[in-house]
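G., the chain you wanted modeled:
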Amino acid sequence: MEVTIKLLIFVKNKQMKVIVKNKKSNFEYEIIQKLTAGIQLLGSEVKSIRDNKVSISESYCYINKGEAYIKGMHVSEYKKTGNYDNHDPIRDRKLLLNKSEIIKLTESLEQKGLTIIPVSVIINEHGFVKIEIALAKGKKIHDKKQKLKVDAINLTEKRESINIF
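Predicted structure as tokens:
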């Protein structure tokens, strides 16, 4: 009886866990549409991702022959196994998307200035590693400066409202 109760509690507490976020994505790009995609990984890559040994800051997505890939995603080698059966840290990994989603993305990419960027790596409630990608348009330098000014003004207003009370 006790074992089943503990098992039910363990399953009930599972939630979606964000492993890593691409902090540059909101600053450098204007996000148009977000999608969640599965990612084809090796066992040692999954273990490294669960240990937060992943970086997506310099990565991007592309479509080749009707399949989506992520390039430049760095997943560190899993140290607990030594050098036996480890993976290449920077390799192209296949994204698992529906055919209709890939077709929509390719049609959108034909527009000038649009790209696909990774936003975050998550582990869903079932324990699968997923990657959140976004169709985005690059911002100009003056747009970035304007956003920094607006953020600074909002911050000072917030500080002043706190100091009033």
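Residues 15-138 form a domain with the Small Protein B; Chain: A; fold (CATH 2.40.280.10).

Shout if anything looks off.
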